[in-house]
Structure formats: C-alpha cells, structure tokens
Please model this.
Amino acid sequence: MHFGKSHLEDKREDLRSHYGKIEKTAGVTALRIAFCLLLVVLVCGAGLVIGAVRGVIDSAPDISEANIMPLGNASFIYDADGNQVQKLTGAQGNRVSISIEEIPLDMQHAIVAVEDARFYEHNGIDPSGIIRAFVVGVSHGFHFTEGASTITQQLLKNNVFTDWMEETRIQSFKRKIQEQYLALKLEKTLTAEGENAKDVILENYLNTINLGSGCYGVQTAAQTYFGKDAKNLTLSECAVLAAIPKAPTAYNPKNHPEKNQQRRDKILNNMKEQGYITEEEYTIAMNDNVYDRIAMHTQSQAESAPYSYFIDEVITNLINDLMVQKGYTEVQAKNVVYSGGLKIYTTQDSYMQSILDTEFQNPENFPANTQIGLDWALTVEQADGEVQNYSKEMLQLYFRNSDPNFDLLFDSQEEAQSYIDQYKAAIMQEGDTIVAERSSFTPQPQACMTVMDQRTGYVKAIVGGRGEKTASLTFNRATDNYSQPGSTFKILSAYGPALDLGKITLATVIKDEPFNYSDGTPLQNSDLTYHGDVTVRQAIINSINIPAVKVLTELTPKVGFDYLKKLGFSKLSEEYDVIQPLALGGITYGVSDLELTAAYAAIADGGQYRKPVFYTKVTDSKGNVLIDNTENKATQVFKASTASLLTNAMEDVLEKGTGVAARLDNMHAAGKTGTTNEAKDLVFAGFTPYYTAAIWATYDTHAEFPESDREFHKRLWAKVMNEIHEGLADMDFETSATVQEATICTKTGLLARSSCPSITEYFAVSDLPTERCRGHYTAPASTPTPTRTPSAASTPQTTPTPTEAPQETPAPTETPADPPSNTPETPDTPETPDAPSEPDTPAEISEVQPQSEESGSSE
Model:
C-alpha cells in the first residue's frame, strides 16, 4: 500500500473527479426534468389557450345569422300624394341608408385612408397592424393606445357586438377574438356568395358610423352639414365627414371646426400618399372654404319644428296598431316607428291641411275680443329641502279670494305674466329655489276641426287648436277633448234611429208643448216658447228640443244608445247615458270632434259608418308591407233611405234654419248645429257630396260665449269648406232609390186628394201609405138674402122669399186605393168630394220660423 504524499494527492484527485461526475449528471438530469416540466406546462397552457379560444370562437354569433346592417334608420311620413311631410328619428336612428353606388368614391377612399389603409388587401384582419399595435403597446409600458381593428371588425363591433360600451376587460378580450374570427369568416362568406365583400362591408359601415350632431351614416350627415345628398359631396366635404368618427363630439365640424380641420388635412394627405387623389386634387381640397359653408348652412337651418296635429295622430295611431295587430310592447312599437326605417303613407291632403292651418291662425275668423288663456305650473325646493308643486288651479284659487270672477283669461300675455309674478312673490320664501317652471299662453276661445272623405273614412286634414304649436305629441282638442255635443245628437240618437225603424217620417206631426222628463224635471226649448204642432222636418230645421226628446222617449233611450255605439262613440256609458237627455247630447263623458265627424260621415255615405283612418300603408326598411289600412270596411248603421231623408232635412238647416251662417257659396251642403248649456260649447257638423267636417269651439276655462259670439264657428266652417271645394263641380246629394216624394193628407196620413189638407214630403218607400184618403167635404156657409127697408110711402111691403136650402150631395162609393207614386195622381175630371170621415177641426201644422240655437244637455 502506498501512503506517500504523492499517492494521497492522487487519491484525493480521483475522489474529486468522481464527485464531479455525479454532480454533473445530477445537474443535467435536473435540467432535463425542468425542461420537460416547462414543455408540459407550455403544451398544457397552449392547449388551454387553444381550448379557450376555440370555446370563444364557438360561442361567437353564426355569421349566416349575424346582421351587419345598421340597427336603426329614420322613418318617413308621406301625404296622400306621396310627398314627404315628416322625418321621424329616435336615439341612434337618425339614419338614411343608401347603396354603395350612391356613396362617392372620394368618401369611400377617405374613410379607408384614415381608418384601414390595407382594407382592400387583407381578408378581414390586418396581421401587420396587430403586430404594430402590440409593439407600440409594449414599448409604452403595456399601455395599448393604438388600435388595430379593421373596418370589417369595426362594422361587426357596431352592428353585431352592440354592448361593447359596457364590457368588462375579460368580455372585451373575448369580443376581440370573436371579432377577428368573424371578420375573416364574413369576408370569406360574402365572397363565396358571389358578393363584392369590400363593397358590402364599406356600404354598411358608411351607413352605420356616428358622424356627430345626431347623424348616423353619410347620407344624414351630408344633409345635416351641407344640405345635400351624399352622392353630391366634394372631396373636401368627404374628408370632413371622414374626420368625425374617431371622436364624433370632439371632431364635430360645426362645433369644433379647427380640430376637424386638423384631422381632415391628415386624411387628405393620406389619400394623396396612398394614391387615391392627385397633387392637384389635394391642393384644391386643402384650399376649400368648407367650414364657412358649414357655418352658413347651420345658421340657415331652422330649429326642428314640432310635429303637426295630423302627424301626432299618425304616430299615436300607428303605435297603438303595432301593439294591437302585431303584438309589440309599447317600447318595441316606439322603437320601430322612430328607428325602424318605416315608410308611412298617410291620408293627409296637404292642400286641405294648409287651408285649415291658415284659417285657424287668422284672428279675423274669431271673436274680436280674443283673450289669452294661461296654463302654468311651478316646482319649488324650499329652504328646508321639501319640494312643493304649484298649479294654475292654485293660482286661480289664490286670486279668487279677492276676485270671485277671476277665470285665468287675460287681455294680453303681459297681463297673464304679471299675475304669475304676483303669485310667485306671495308663495316663495327666502331660501326657496325654483326647480322647474312651465308657462303656456294660448288664444281663447279655442277651436278644432276635422275633415274626412266619407266614402273612405280617410281623414284629410285636422287641426287641434289655434295658436302656435310649441311641442310634438301635445294635447289635440280634436281627438283628446271629449265634450257634450249638444243638439248635433238629435240627428244621431233620436231622429235617425226613429226614421230607420219606421217610427216617424219627416212629415210626422209632434206637439211642442210643456214636457217633463220622467223624473219630473221640466224641459224647455232654447227660446223658452212652445210652437204647437210641428213636423219632424220643422223640428230639425229649428232645432226644437221637446220633439226630439219625445221621439227618443217613444223609441226608448236604449235604442238610441245602441245606434250611437254603432256610430263609433267610444266613451258612452251604458250605466249612465241610457237616459232621455241623450237626445240632446246630455251624456257623461262626451264625444270628440273626430268621432262626431265620423258619425256624420256615415250619414253622408248612405248610412255606412267607417272608422277614421290616418294612414293607408306602412312598409318596413326592406319595403315589405307591415300594416295595410287601404281597405276600410264599412258597417251599415242607417238604411240608405234614412240617410237620404236626414240629409234632405239638414239641407234645410243651412237654407233656412239654425245653420244659415254655415251655408256654402259653391256647393250643396247639409248639417246640424249644437250648443251646450250656457253656450259653453259651440258645435257644427256637416257635409257636402265630397267631404264631411265638424268644428268645435270652446273656452278652455269653460266660460260662456256671449250672445254676439255664437255664430263665428259656423262662418269659419263655411270659409274652410268653401276653399276646400273651390274648383270642384257643384253636385246635389244623391237620393236613395228607396226614397220617394209624396203628398199626404195631414188629417189621415193617407195619400192626399185635392180636397185634403196636405203636405208634400220625402218618405222611405216602405213608409208610404198605400191608401188614398177619401177626401174631406166642408159645407159652404149659407148666404142670407140681402134685404132693405123700403120707405113706407114709396114701396109696398112684400113677404121675403126664403133662401134655398143646400141639397146634400150623396157620398160616392169608395174607390180602390191608388198605388204610391212620386206625385199623387190628379183626376182627369173633377171629383165629387167624399163625405168627411173625421171631424172638421184638423190640428194645424205650425210654420215655425228659424230661431236661436238650443241649449244643450239640460234641454
């Protein structure tokens, strides 16, 4: 054995070498294990990422079902001649979509140049853009400010992933993955379907983008900023619009022209560098004073006017029809109307509408003592934090403490404002703050009118009040106000039904005499007199109250009520309105001017009632018919003979009765007047062979009309209708074939002979008598023989010769009854009068002269 020093050193070295090998081996092994573990983690991680991405992609919308079209488009309303009269827009709905052919190439290239320079080269996503954005974000401390979304991705974000504004960070990451996937899929699918993918995507994108000032899409923006269609935009104008989408508020060219110009200049430069425009085009566009034009156009644009009363009704009716017919909720219906891209074709005749608008704004058509009515409300936060509301009724009550007649009617707006100021000074304390205040000053008396085509039920024009209309969808007196109709109801509830059922004729004699309602309440005529025996025609002409109530009483109020329901009156109460005052319009909740017009239109159209219609057809954004109103079915309420008889009698109302002031200069017309208690409502409903119209006048404060002001509404009705019928052929009303004129005996009601007291009248053929009266003979009074007293000296006294007694003429045998004819037969030879069959004291038919109009519900 060797224990020398050198041996020991060798031994130590060998040991060291052995341990080193072990260490090396262990190190390599550990490294290998770590690498394998890392590889496993990476593979698993990659698998998880791939799985997660696959899951995100699998949950993406189906590209075949994804709608890349804009979600909201403006709707348009057209009149009966197809002229656009109103544009409707909602939130994100002020958009008019146009085709790519209508969008200038400069507009297309401008948006591409600034938003997606490689748009025409990539397949939906831009890998180089993604890498660039990632590098820039990392270099800025992982603060990613530069976007890499292509136009295709932005289109999907705006029209498919519509909730991106409310996303969490994780949801945003998920959505971006789906965007990129769908962008590739979309372009591939469009190409496979034979579409030009880039044109389709660009068209929808340019119709979608927010371009400030409430504008969505280039068409609306072009009209808003430049007053022209998109197809007529210049290069400079295209660049201005392309500058807006990055920040629609900050780059709005009306409000921030300097910032918009900076971005516009960049866009023009990009277009030049990318070869879309030449140097010359660039220079011309850069020197264009486009912002001066925008400013001038902005100044020339009037503030958006409120919708007209007609448009209000179209919108209200359409929303209701969408809910009833299509099952939409109210929110859904409103969204469709304002943002569904609908085309709404109305029944409005713009010429007629302009006549109504003009005449109802003309103060000369209203009483000279026109006053100002006040509608006012105030909300105050008091010093202690309590909120207090004040109304016009509270203001009125305050001033009535010192003036019991204070009625919210003033001689001027300034006077009305002074009372507001006085009241505010009285109620407000130190520390109080006004939260909100509303004041409205309207001319009084107020009035409304509706014009309909009775043959279709189409409403041609409507005005819901006089004075300036300051807001859309406001109170419309023609449709929203329900008041008692006065004596216009005599025709609809009493005379019409009674004629229809054969209970009366126009020749029927009714005694106008003292009369009480069934509860003992006395009934009076408007002139506080009684007229004795009057015919139904005379009672209609002069609007006498008692005969109308007598007719309804005999008919029963329930029958009259049922007829009124068929005529479309919606607020009649079977519990409260089946009463005798129904004959005079004495009802609980009232009727609207629109309803009254439609009811009289039924008489004008041969007894056929049609529901009032404001629009004929509605199509969706693709041109499909959503609602079709063109066929407005009629319901036969009165027989044609009844309608003809009522019309004939109401012609006399205008010729010689209570409606003389409404007589037309150029057209046959018929109508009926109505006045409610204390002359608080003045009504006239009438028609011509062409159109039906009803007018209503009242004070919003329910004040009484003075005697001198109770005819103006009839004159206004005539003025409007004269203008509407200007140039139309004057036609007489058609008489039903079931109506004949005949002369009847007023004593027997049979066809009259020459010896009968008679009246000539129109009758329904079914109500004509089939027998002829036998005639009436009245013996002539005997004439005494004249005598004289002779002088005793000159003349001898003689015995008077007795007067010859008249011989009685025997009554002839009864002749067969003659058949009814338009004109009673006249015998060729004189007849011997028949012996009287009734007493010789017939009741006379009074000739009643036109008189002042009735008073309404208590008549």
The two ends are 152 Å apart (CA to CA). The chain has 23 helices and 22 strands. Residues 5-58 form the longest helix (54 residues).
